[in-house]
Write a structure and sequence with these properties.
Elements: E1 21-24, E2 31-35, H1 40-58, H2 62-78, H3 80-91, H4 95-115, E3 122-124, E4 132-139, E5 142-146, H5 154-166, E6 169-173, H6 179-191, E7 199-201, H7 207-216, E8 220-226, H8 229-240, E9 245-249, E10 254-258, H9 264-276, E11 286-292, H10 293-308, H11 328-343, E12 347-350, E13 363-368, H12 373-376, E14 383-389, H13 392-399, E15 407-411, H14 415-424, E16 429-432, E17 451-452, H15 459-462, E18 465-472
Parallel strand pairs: 5-6, 5-8, 6-7, 8-9, 10-11, 10-15, 11-14, 13-14, 15-16
Antiparallel strand pairs: 1-2, 3-4, 4-18, 9-17, 12-13
């Protein structure tokens, strides 16, 4: 951590104690430092302080809140290199990707700093002459979030920025594997002038305790969660008792489809970007590849060649494209899925081997069938199973044959087919001739068991606002 110039970003690190959480580097296994392991009482205290701070914050004008958020955005970008290095060290992704995530995460703060000034109400034509009808938008109150390890800054800012812009306070529990990025980003929020009790990071190894506390707290009005569908189900059940508002960004099983009229070179480029970013550890990355028969061999040959050229290594090394998996469990899952697929007849076109430590070679599997476990499960690793298909109808049936509905991708140059397939895919997001689709200006979210609610765009701030109807009588 001696490479970090702005030492204030490491202010949350503490001494090694029996209760502290050790944060390691997945590329080396070395301990980077320690963060607090907060107790239930400490988290409850943070929530209570957030409730008091929210009352003051909500009285600020949207412009005043915007000015502080824009200062936070500027500080994130000024410290982009330090934040990227912290992220690469604790999460493993290549430094170029970490820089990109800092910019991506900061973009939500910039966007919602402006969007907060546009939370308009309405004047509604009245059916009675002696009345006037209007609506206003008000913050829901205290919002809480549980965020994952794969995007440790962006998943904080994508939720905190609209909440704060709306006038809410925000308590977040980042993943225990990657808390340093969250603490560093929030430290810059404090330097921008945001009150400490208004935006709080809590860390604990007891994720179940924190989730139950958030869901059961009478002081928290809103829960936002990004993670697995299984955990999302639990949080929704727990939140039902207090009828709490929730937004859930859950699991994905994204199809990546290459039609016979596609630009194959563009499809290969998009496939590399979609599948192997963050070593395949993203909820929107391509999980299964469907390629039409007549272009199957051409795509596989070009795709396999491109994959074979990806460099594996520590994220701080020059030219590295594939970093480590987050932990041993993630690596074991990848190995299990490949073993199962090859036992059922799949062939390894490239990769498929352990690369030591938590590293695994980027892999392309051919002769894969739709019923294999590697197609049905979310892989969350650098493995690309490629499946043949004949016609559009059978393709749609296979692509939609999943409980998930987050992201999907396809390549075609036929405008009629583009509209037909985009409308037929049962997913919240569709990338057409593009492998990377996330942006702050578009709504991010899924359908089916990939979650509810949207983040980003104008819809993102709606998750943190209540609409109040006011009727003025006796006019």
């Amino acid at each position: 951590m001696e490479q970090i110039k702005n030492r204030s970003l490491l202010s949350a690190m503490c001494e090694n104690t029996n209760s502290a959480i050790a944060v390691d580097n997945p590329a080396t296994g070395d301990i980077l430092g320690y963060v607090p392991n907060h107790s239930k009482q400490e988290i409850e205290s943070a929530v209570s302080k957030a409730a008091e701070a929210q009352k003051v914050w909500a009285k600020q004008t949207a412009k005043q809140r915007s000015e502080i958020l824009l200062r936070w955005f500027n500080l994130l970008m000024e410290n982009q290199e330090d934040l990227a290095r912290i992220m690469t060290l604790e999460q493993g992704k290549p430094l170029a990707e970490s820089r990109g995530e800092v910019a991506y995460g900061a973009s939500f703060i910039q966007w919602f700093a402006e969007e907060g000034k546009r939370t308009y109400g309405e004047t509604i034509p009245t059916p009675m002459a002696d009345r006037r009808i209007m609506t206003i938008r008000q913050p829901v109150g205290v919002a809480a979030a549980i965020t994952p390890w794969n995007f440790p800054i962006a998943m904080i800012t994508r939720k905190a920025a609209p909440a704060l812009a709306a006038g809410c306070s925000f308590v977040a529990k980042p993943a225990a594997q990657t808390p340093l990025s969250a603490y560093a980003a929030v430290e810059l929020a404090y330097q921008a002038g945001l009150p400490r009790d208004l935006l709080t990071i809590v860390t604990t190894t007891d994720a179940a305790m924190a989730g139950e506390l958030f869901c059961g707290s009478e002081q928290i009005q809103k829960i936002s969660f990004t993670g697995s569908t299984n955990v999302g189900r639990i949080l929704m059940k727990q939140s039902a008792e207090s009828v709490k508002r929730v937004s859930m960004e859950l699991g994905g099983n994204a199809p990546f489809i290459v039609f016979d009229d596609a630009d194959i070179d563009a499809a290969v480029k998009g496939a590399i970007a979609s599948k192997f970013r963050n070593a395949g550890q993203t909820c929107v990355c391509a999980n299964r590849f469907y390629v039409q028969n007549s272009v199957y061999d051409e795509f596989v040959d070009k795709f396999s060649k491109a994959v074979s050229e990806l460099k594996i290594g520590h994220g701080l090394e020059e030219g590295v494209s594939i970093g480590p998996l987050i932990d041993d469990n993630a690596k074991n899952k990848v190995q299990r899925l490949i073993a199962s697929a090859t036992e059922q007849g799949a062939k390894v076109a490239v990769g498929g081997k352990d690369h030591g430590g938590r590293f695994f070679e980027p892999t392309v599997l051919t002769d894969v069938t739709h019923d294999m476990a590697i197609v049905q499960e979310e892989i969350f690793g650098p493995i690309a199973p490629v499946i043949r298909f004949n016609d559009d109808e059978s393709l749609i049936q296979m692509a939609n044959d999943t409980i998930y509905g987050l992201a999907s991708y396809f390549y075609s140059k036929n405008i009629n087919r583009i509209f037909a397939i985009a409308e037929a895919l049962d997913y919240g997001m569709v990338g057409v001739n593009e492998g990377v689709i996330s942006t702050e200006v578009a709504p991010f979210g899924g359908v089916k068991q990939s979650g509810i609610g949207r983040e980003g765009a104008k819809q993102g701030i709606d998750e943190y606002l209540n609409t109040k109807y006011i009727c003025l009588g006796g006019m």
